[in-house]
Queue: 4 jobs
Job 1
Amino acid sequence: MQKSLNAIKYLIYAGIFAIPFLVFIVSSSMFFPFITGKNFSFRIIVEIMTALWLALILFDERYKPRKSLVLVMLAIFVGVVALSSIFGENFYRSFWSNYERMEGLVTYLHLVAYFLVLSGMMKTEKVWTKLFNTTLFASVIMSFYALVQLYGNFQIHQGDRVDATLGNASYLAIYAVFHIFLAMVLFYRAKDFKKWVYLFVIALESFILYRTATRGAILGIIGGLLISWLIIAIASPNKKSKLKHIYLLMGVAIVIVGFMFIKTTSFVKNSPVLNRFATISLTENTTESRLTIWKMSWKGFKEKPLFGWGQENFNLVFNKYYEPILYKQEPWFDRAHNVFFDRLTTNGLFGLLSYAGLFGVALYYLWAKRRKTGLSVEDSAIFGGVFLAYFFNNLFVFDNLSSLILFITILAYVNFRAKGNNATVSAFVSGGQGETIKSDYGKATYAVVIGAVAIFIIYTVNVPGIKTSRNIINAFKINGAGDAKGTFELFQKAISYNSFGSMEAREHLSSFAMQVYGSPKLDQPFRDKVMDYTISELKKQNEQYPNDIREMIFLATVYNKAQKYDEAIALLNKAINIAPKKQQLYFELGTSYLNKKDYENGLVILKKSFDLDQTFDDARRIYAVSAIFADKESLAEELMKDHGGLIQDDERFLKVYAQKNNIEKITAILKVFIEKNPTNIQYRLNLAAVYLQKGQRSKSVEQLEKAIEANPSFKKQGEEYISKIKAGLNP
């Protein structure tokens, strides 16, 4: 029995020490490769660890978690998230979330389980230090990966802002912030050469943080450090330490003041990082959009103040209270880009208070109860600093799994120190004196039941979602290879698993269906089959998410492609009742009317879209194109008079004039396209065809010759066209 229990302990510890390395998982075989692989791996490891831990405490109760206000507040917070999900707008989405985020209630339940396992197993300062060093080691590898991104061949996914294996510069930034503070804690504790090791880690992580150019995280760490050093300067019993930290505070103050004097210089303006700080203002596009979204969030909170709209349902608030000015940013937001507004909107007042309570109880133990915890002034100040830095960062961005894991890990450490550093169980116990193993082997039956439940949970929570994701990716691959029927089968298979990923599968199926329906190469019965199936599945999606206008747009777009205009119009009018200021809805509704040849209503609808915000250039262009389509070119001319006229480098203008067979306008637009894209031979081929249609054969040949010059691989085909034209034929 003892050997079995020791094996269980080692397996649990193996899981705990494996989790810091999950950040390196980038699964190209799964949808959203930077997100899904990490999340599914975390869930499976936590599920296994939790089952093993529950079995362990059946036989040895000393592995139960320590109780403190931290544990109580975490339980309250997750309880509120659960209640808001149950009583919110869409429990299914609240529970599961989607592939892009994977931060539904199910994830928070796993984070609680992870906290409990840590609290139960991590019983000594020594084992905690090992875990901190392990996660620091992982972060150093991550930092070197980011360095290779900067100076090597690894792809950066956000311009010049490094993102490493997290896929987002903001995610990497807060990841670095946590590890800078952890390295500082260990720096203060270390002696001799080890101090230099941790100092190197701090310097490396700080450089990576700087190259993420993430303002919230950088300002957060500055604020956290200032408060940490101020506390040390005030509370440290060591006069030398006091003086050292006063100098550090003065140094930071000088840097901040100095930056204010040089922020308008060319040096700052030419720096992609420093310029982001120099240009911070209330009128900046990013700041303006954030303020707008926060106002929308506040409106959503006032409508459902206590428990909110439900976890992961911010998108409903965004759509309902959408402001047209947001066309400058993304059209679809599922986050307020402020964790506290997210909590306020999705989990209500109780959600915000309980979330803030996690920071409050942590700081209470670190600062008010420092002597009880046995922490040094430096330890309590630095650990408090990381919570403050994280708090400030969350004013501007949103959480992700890697930051949540680190947050929960440090909360668990505070929970460990809350009762003082009086360990009752040694790390990696292998038996011997002091064991309190119960001899009731009847408990083995319960252990078997726990194992069976764990297997069921592992399969139910993870396998359908994983299979759905992989089938979506495989569908993309073979569709790219031209296998339409195989692609359709894979989409059907993905949807058949009935996982939370079915939403993603149906959305991409809609794009595929429109592609297939418009392809004359495929037989009509197959095209009809794909379209009918897609409409049926999107209807199910709309029933499952009845107030989600994004899902309505997917179905309406497919309706329009299938020439079911009345169905599209009815659905889009319903969507507009939910989100009356969403321009995209008017675009699609206007298209429905125009396709139906109801030009009068089409133009009325598109004018409404334009009038919502007349600075929205795309709305102006769509309105103008529609006016041309409806034979009201004078209206189009008036709309575009001060905006470049009707000769635009815009495919929509080209297409409408092609439908009108306006050769002169087609020619003029193609010339603009060619001027801006001289190597694009398709534009030259189109212009050559137009010249041929006009009987200007020499000009047609000239364009073909230029196409050959731009793309030598076109030479054989181009010369065939030229020879036919010169022979008096029309190829």
Note: Residues 426-438 have pLDDT under 50 and may be disordered.
Job 2
Amino acid sequence: MRLLIFLVAMALAACAAPTRAAETDLARWEKQARAVTITRDDWGIPHVRGRTDADAVFGVVYAQAEDDFNRIETNYLTAIGRLAEAEGESALYSDLRARLYVDPAEMQRRYAASPSWLKALMEAWADGLNYYLHEHPQVKPRVITRFEPWMPLSFSEGSIGGDIEHISLDGLRAFYGGEGLPAPVDPGAALEPDGSNGIAIAPARSASGHALLWINPHTSFFFRAEAQVTSDEGLNAYGAMTWGQFFVYQGFNERLGWMHTSSNVDNIDEYLETVRRRDGGYVYRYGAHERPLAAREIALSYRTAGGMAQRRFTVFRSHHGPIVRAVDGGWVSVRLMDEPVKALMQSWLRTKARDLASFREVLALHTNSSNNTVYADADGNIGYFHANFVPRRNPRFDWSRPVDGSDPATEWQGVHGFDESPNTINPPGGWVFNTNNWPYTAAGLGTLDKADYPPYMDTGGENPRGIHALRVLEGAPPFTLDTLRDAAFDPWLPAFADLVPALVDAWDRAPPGDPLAARLAQPIALLRAWDHRWSASSVPTTLAVYWGEALWLALRTDPDSEDAAAYLALIAGSTPQQKLAALAAACDRLTADFGTWSVPWGDVNRFQRLTSDIVQRFDDSAPSIPVPFTSSRWGSLASFGYGDRAFRNTRKYYGTSGNSFVAAVEFGERVRAKAISAGGQSGDPASPHFNDQASRYASGALRDVYFHRDELAGHVEREYHPGE
């Protein structure tokens, strides 16, 4: 590919300092600001009231910017493909991936064609952020000095990047990048790891006779902010809002609640296109004919030590989607959901649904992509709704691999409707759940039959958290908000309940006088007596985690895999000698780091937040607090994930993902809710709300939510209009 690289001045318009607003803009912003009231409670959480929905949007994004403008800007730099302008060449292929789907000119056309009510919300969103920058000239954006109304269409669901993150950056680099370029860093990978728990309890299984909902996204920490957004047009939503989005993504209103979990549905397809050169361009075969392969140029700017540079890419697409890599002599295109207007409509309308019927109408837009939904409402309904966008395909093809793009039979045949998906409403057992496991146990064993659905409905199967959820839900006494919380923080680790006995058995079977077995006698004695439950004081938890990691590192074939099933299968399939050797390695590692292998889990597993940086830099010598729960890969429902520690140069484990925003909600005559967030609401280390929820987070001590206006009485820290 021809690449054009040239240096430009640092005064590139995209990076210019913000200018003072035009008088017409300022008058409009100030008028809208007067229609908005932001009430900060004693946890710093904004309760935003507007006369109209647009006013409320204006206010809530303004409040978000007050709390952490950098996260808003970074999310949009990633979504619109301009991250390299801030972070340099390492982000270039992340930008290219985004721009394959987010063409600013096309997004502007889609914005212009949007329904008037949606345009009003997008315009209010841009105005709220631009007014914030006007009122805070000391805030220096890294790139985006003026937000445009079309930008929310680039980020219209709740997860940054969304489905496009399935496209390999390495594949893009190999196809479009040539040789000798620095290895790309995937900024999206650290922004939202897969995971979440959702549980709904029917009135028959509730002590109060009201439906209950457990909201428990497992995202990277500080990925979403907590807020309440209300208007005189019927909006009253509370919950987790991804920084920079204007809708509550996981939360509730006064009538119903929704919790999204990531599905293992296969809803993205690769097509192997047969391509050849013709007349100076490219064509690809489709049926008995050849079609021109569309080509366009994408210019991407990126920061360098000496200023800004630019690289131009000629990218290609078939009618299936953009070309992303080459394999087996063909070019691979990717087809995925590409309906940003409908997706943004669904994201907003969901927050204003009033009952099961209206919620299902919103679901019928089928643009919440791969996300499952766990649902509960004030009428006593509960439900599990499987992945919202599942293409209907010809069953004779293997959709787990690239299919023949020249065969018209591989075209999608619409989208699976409600009755064609593994959904369940008001099951007889009185509860539903999802832990990113398969849908077939959503309401208990035997309630949904896998054989009734095509294989692409789920590609992941059961997982340890799913086994755990079944255990705490089946046969449990009637739930309250507090006992639902207790169930979601149940400390049993099902993976180790299966794996550790095999380790103990390997020791028992070791030959008499085996020096390795003799060395491991004390650790084995602790593991033999362990109840497979985490706690901050538990030494066996530490031994088990370090042992499992040692086996994984020794046996893994895919260094990037975090698949729980693969993880556990490798460990379970290890030989007795491998099991014992891994425990010895774990003890050696602990001794090297802490001076002894007998280390309580809470001394290792820590929560630390020192700066506002999106990628935290951890320090063993700085303050931190113990966290008793573990990574979800071991089956802990409460998740505290730390990822790869190698680059952090620390002895202790510092969490970066897992339980983030957590809420328990009861839908009676008045909604009652409790919640907690990792760290705190503000991204400013100088704010009292930077880390004021950390201890509660670590202990799982949910605080009361001030959902109703009278509940705010005595808990108001500040009330103001934007700009004051």
Note: Residues 1-19, 179-193 have pLDDT under 50 and may be disordered.
Job 3
Amino acid sequence: MKKIYLVLPLLILGCSDTNFNYPESEKKPLSYNAHGETINDPYLYMEDCQNLEVIEWSDEQNAFTNDYLNGPEYDELFEQISEAYSSEYYSMDYFDEESDYYYYNSGANQHNQYVKKEGNQVILNPDEWSKDQTLNLANVSLSPDEKYLAYSVSDGGVDWRTIYLINLQTMEKHETSVTEVKFSSIDWDQDSQGFYYNKYPKPEEKNRLCEPSLNAAIYYFDIDSGENSLFYGEKNPEENYSLSFIGDQNAPLIRVINGSEEENHYIIKRNDSWELATPKNIASFDYQDNDEEGLFFLTNYEAPNYRLVKVLFSGEIIEVIPEKNLALKSVSFLDDFIIANSIDIDMNSLIEFYSKEGEILDYKIPDEISGTLGSFSMQDQKLRFSVSSFVEPTRYIDLDLDSLDITVVWQDKVTNFNPSEYKKTFTYYESKDGTMVPLTYFHRKDVELNSETPVFLYGYGGYNISIRPSFSRKYVGWLELGGVVAIANLRGGGELGKKWHNAGRLKDKQNVFDDFLYASKYLETEGVGNRKSTVISGRSNGGLLVGTSLVQNPNYFGATLPAVGVLDMLRFTEFTEGWGWRGDYGSPLLSKEDFDFNFEISPYHQLKEDVCYSPTLVTTGRRDDRVVPSHSYKFTARIQDFQGCNNPVMLLDTVRAGHGSGGGAAMPKWKRIELFSSEQAFALKHVSS
């Protein structure tokens, strides 16, 4: 294995003497009104999704950036990351005797194949769907009789999906496809005659990637007729739905949500009429299972750290697994018991076993199995599950619950990564207001940590999303070259329950930025790099985190990497899913109060002329229809114009990529490798003591 350790003085460019001749970003006399104020916005025209002038500008920015990144840093990282992505992959279904299909990747495939066990027949191979491999398999659903396979496809990374249907007996594709699908599962009826899905009104083609996503409805596709019919919806333009069928009567159960807000409710159809199955929009409910008496939900109703309840068909709520001092993140119903999966104080999974009546059982997971556990099932009287950590790739494990004997069913063997050569440190650090925040950092054991160590600091801090320990191939290059990766579990996330989320949203969003800054300060005091050897990174809401951290602390970090970020905090509601983010951000164009606190944290609006900002690489996807690329375009144009020193500010706009250009699997492997190599190469050019 090739090992090259960072020799910082040879890699440092820092604040160079280079005068960057950026592609020109035209300013136009444009503005809009909000709450009686005129907001001047010279780059407002960049919000036009079909503006050829903007696309040409983006192409010029890409060429400029790629020319700058071309060099030994990129080449070495590309080699390391490519090697990390070359290992073979099997889904757990492959090892399940009752499963007939599985996902497979030889290591050379750009996307996972969908394979039938009998004869190892490849049913779906997304690599063959387009020359550049940018058509991606989103999800699959077998009909109950296994005669049909329905599957959805994303074109170039967009959230929009098209559902296709294959007759598995003849391998013929159905002549009719289903379009205008978004944020949808594929749910078959009992008779395998058709399926249900989430459908949106067809937007004008020119507005397809920008228009707000409203008026969702559940539709039914009939195989014989090829027709689609409305099943439920057209009630509230801001509602979205997910469908389940429960009980012997196959009663439809619908989850009703409003954007990204946690508060939701369920309705169930009984006796030919719809009725509430949970309290309405006062808490989060997540359906888990059912019996003849009622429905089981994971909920934060009267339980900020979540609990499991059974809602009887009479409306009575019975507690099954009580709330504890740790956040309960998921439950798994198996034949004889329930598995409760909580986040322990070290961010690893804490597993407890309960009877269906809520009595705790004396089964346990051995201490040597540590990380994030999931995908629980019973196989041959043994408990099977997956486990992964920051420094150990995924394993599938069979555990004898009586003897505690462990059998490794499958181990992901990353070509150029040996877990035994790595060290992980978990701790809590003190943020600005005294709050203790979880932090994990990891590196090669033979790397001597000091004030010059390059640090890749990642955070998210929003939407009750928890960053759990899991292995990521994208960091292998940085780690093998002698760097440190640090993960901060900031407020706004869900790692410590609903209170942790609430402490980092709306008017309290500043806590998230403070937590991130103080993570860097803590590492520096511990002799793990310094602020100038630290690159900060975040994606989506994490892009906001990085952008705001940059403008609030100009030229503080060695480099900043805001990816697919929400960077204009005044106008995000005007596009695609933005209207639904009010749970964390509010509605700045509708509420003066929300406008005021968003303005104070908005990266785009808080940029100042002639201020020296840290070296910055802004990344986005040209087909991102979740956080539209205009956020990144406008921010790049303004900061290039305002930059008060020779630190570079650059844009990398991935063509034929969507929100997955934040690094998700929706991108083909080659695009992910190029993106991660570019980001980290940019960082290496600028980390310094």
Note: The CA atoms of residues 159 and 675 lie 20 Å apart.
Job 4
Amino acid sequence: MAISRKNLSVNALDFDTIKSNIKVFLREQDTFKDYDFDGSGLTVLLDILSYFTHYQGIYNNLTANELFLDSAVKRSSLVSHAKSLGYTPRSVTAPVATVNINFSVAPTGFILNRGRTFRATVNGKTYNFTNLVDYTVTPDDTVNGGFVNDVEIRQGVLRSKSFIVPSNNQKDQKFTLPDSNVDTKTIKVQVLASSTDNSGIEDVWDIGTDYNLITASTNAYFIQEDFDGTFSIYFGDGVVGRKLEAGNIVSVSYLKTDGAFTNGIGKNDTETNRTFTLNSNSTVTTVSPAAGGGAKESITSIRYNAPKSYASQNRAITTNDFESLISSNFSGFKSVYVFGGENADPPQFGRVLVALNPNTNTTIPSSLKKDIEAFLRTKCSVAVTPDVIDPVQMFFRYAANVVYDPSQTTLTSAKIQSLVRAKISEYFDSNTINFFSVVSLSRMIKDVLESLVEVESVALVPYLEQRFEPNPNTPTGYQLKFQNPIFHPHEGHSPVVSSNSFGYVDTDGLTKQVFVDDDGRGKLRVYELEGGNRNYLNRNFGSILYDSGILTINTNVLSVFNAENIRIRVEVGAQRLVSNQNHILTQDVSDSGRATVNLFLDDRPDRRVVTSTATENAYVGTSSISSVLNNQIVAEQTQSDTTQRRSASGASDRQTLPSFDPSTTLPVQSPASDRSGGY
């Protein structure tokens, strides 16, 4: 019997709905009108049909998604879409360090040749660095010795690969590099006529970026990312770019690097993190540790940058053009912000200012700044001067009082503290990637409470810190803009400004070790410690505008100790932190004192006291928190729940960060209302 042509519902792709629709369709046929599908072997066939239809529908849906840049999820698809827009995703970027080298025996010809291997060991693992250009060694007074300063070395291993152009006369000859972790910025391409002809050995071909300037005779090569994550170089067809001839030798050198993972090497800050070495005849001194390394561009970044790069048309006119070109061609930073010099303070007319948000715990290398400036000069008007500047960093610090329930966890107090710090850092980092960031303290606390079931309450006091290197040649003082209101509940309030120790020239011309605080009435004061007491040397050291968060220091006669910057810290008077223009919110993960987490144990057995009467049990509530803390809590302070509630409400006796005495270790400060001492 023929199947009647009735409508089959195709309104869903899930298995159950597909199977149900097929049953409805079959029951409309005379043959299966009263058939029990679930009680027969036919149900197996229905399952197979439903599964096949389900899988095919999902596959078709996913395939369709890969056809568009906005919906594609596979990297190979996004790379292909980006290629159609003339966009090549960024490769991994090698961190760069700057070193000085002293030679007891200078290298041959007093030349530090390209490709020398420098080594640094971190936690028992050795990483290689190398210089990509030649440096001239300056002779010194020692026999056969010399020195060279400001040598830039990049992390990675210098590799080379040669290719022979085939004789099949193919256009757009493409050659694949065998390594995936290639820093494409370090690629160097040379083309020789043949294996016996060295006439062009010094000719280095340039990467083709501006197709309007490339002619049939231009020695240009091009880069593309392949479907497997490797990179290929290819050449012109005789119309756009010079075409290679059969038998030509293509020599390619490049740096294979570990990227962002090796940022920070060379600090020499611990026993397991040492500075660089070259050979037994040299001593290497670190000028600046490795920084600026970046991972391969993510698929999210490709989806965002590819159309913006196409819109800029390889020229820099608007601020969006500048940001797009920088993000598309450089890495080693989290975000970029571009603004006109007329909007700077003070104004800098005729300049375009570029601020880069560095990766965590890194700085922006001077070499990267120079590269970006040189690149932008080729893309913008001759009347405009691009200038890459360092952002104003506002370092986040905090003190947190945490009450937890031991019945809800088996974790030690140290582990709970660690988890609280990690969760706060995670929220902070995820909300400070870009300029003009907003960090909500209430949402930060909410994340902690939702992720840690043992935590009952969190009271958090935020601080911001700015750092600067004093300049004795500065004709005036210094101004620090914190972009956020400073805590100031009333006139004459206890100090909310503190600092590390630094040098100050007093009225007698003596340099003394001093600290800074405020008088609660808009004045900054400078004092020295004498027997734990404050001896004020200048009660008009500067001024403070609490509402706008601006500190002004009147003098420039300042100095530093132990090569540290002067650090000024303020307590923030709002429940959110914001950053504007070239200011950024950041954390110094190397600063162990940036986060103080004080634990309070809620050890009430049932949070209720049970009393027996003749007729029934009665429950009487209790509001006290035991002052007897778990003996696993080390160096933590005790506090009643009354004080705890004051802290949570933002009263004047809120918990502070530990005070700092340069001669001692960090103590834990009691919750006194005057917050005495620096840090």
Note: The CA atoms of residues 658 and 667 lie 6 Å apart.
